[in-house]
């Protein structure tokens, strides 16, 4: 089965796949090219973003808009971790449970922002949020 761009929901499914792919390639670039070691929470977010890329890529190739259910489950788990990480970064979560340390891998430094404004945890939260919204709109709807 090949992708049918005329099928309802396929463009939003493909957009969700594109966001997951760009996000996965970006964290690989930050880790492998820039040499930034990810913290524990970044690893957990990667654990949900990487499979999203594969699941949504296959679903987009097959024009399987029914895959939104599997994708949205992965994206919600990643969103929860990214949300906690963003609260941690913003200082809302108490420091005593902070997994990013000054001596170890940390994404809380000023060099871990995009354009000097958006921190990586916030960007991850934005990516997972966009994927969830796009997958919600890619659902199959019963024929009228």
Which features would summarize this protein structure in a list?
mainly alpha; 4 helices; elongated; two-stranded antiparallel sheet; 144 residues
Fold blueprint:
Elements: H1 10-33, H2 40-62, H3 68-89, E1 113-114, E2 118-119, H4 120-137
Antiparallel strand pairs: 1-2
Helix pairs in contact: 1-2, 1-4, 2-3, 3-4
The portion of residues forming beta strands comes to under 5%
> What's the total count of β strands?
2
Distance between the termini: 25 Å
- Strand order of the main beta sheet, please? 1-2
Q: What sort of overall outline do the alpha carbons produce when their principal axes are compared?
A: elongated
The succession of helices and strands, N to C, reads HHHEEH
The major β-sheet equals: 2 strands, antiparallel
CA radius of gyration: 17 Å
Mean pLDDT level: 84
The helix fraction, in percent, is 55-70%
Structural class: mainly alpha
Report the uncertain regions.
none
Q: Can you count the helices?
A: 4
